Amino acid sequence: MGEVEDVIETVRAVATEGLSYATDKYDRARYQKLLDLISKTVAEKLSLPSIDVLRLLLSHWGCITPKVGIEVGVMSLTNEILVLKRSDDGKWGVACGWMDIGESPFDTARREVFEECGFRIRPEGYAAVNTKGPEVGLPHQLNVLVICQRIAKETEIRLCHEHTESRWITRADEVEWHPGHEAIAEVLFRYIENPSSVPLIYP
Predict the structure, then answer these.
(1) Who contacts 31 (Cβ-Cβ below 8 Å, separation ≥6)?
(2) I need a surface site. Which of 62, 68, 123, 138 has the fewest CB within 10 A?
(3) Entry pTM
């Protein structure tokens, strides 16, 4: 995707997602204005009526697929795993978040760890892929576990509002887990013990 097309797709994604979730009439008007602007831009590039392009954009372009989540395995030089206590349910998990339009899994991993923990990482590979949902309160999602370069436990951690505590753990049974995250920890500990036991590690 070229630079202009990337901008168009990013704004389209922001506008359509905003229209899906926003309830305030003024916010909805702003998102609609963005979508109208993108419709006009795309219509001019493709020489199509803007109303036809608008219908196309509102159809989400192609198949509706699961949301893509990135989970980040932050490990210490002394073989601990960094876990965060979530503000929403008081349970523990690894740093994670949804991919934004235009990001790679590594981009998302870097952004999420910096936003949630306040430090920078260097992703090194993918450890696992899993799915969750769909069920009540949980969208259907495809999650990719990213392994990053190990860091010192003394690295300063600055938590955002999404978390209340951080810990380094050496066993998966030390904390009460957010749904799905105990399995992530087990993969990470398996990797710590024997990197070759996790078959999907590649840059």
Answers:
(1) 14, 15, 16, 18, 19, 22
(2) 62
(3) 0.74
CB 124 within 8 A of CB 149: yes
- Reduced to 3 states, what is the DSSP secondary structure of residue 35? helix
Q: Which residues contact 174 (CB under 8 A, 6 or more apart)?
A: 167
Which tens digits make up the pLDDT trace of 50-67?
787 777 666 654 455 788
pLDDT tens per residue across span 189-198: 999 998 887 6
Counting every residue written for the chain, the total comes to: 203
Lowest mean pLDDT among 9-13, 17-21, 34-38: 9-13
Residue 161's Cα: distance from chain center in Å? 17
Contacts of 79 (CB under 8 A, 6+ apart): 170, 192
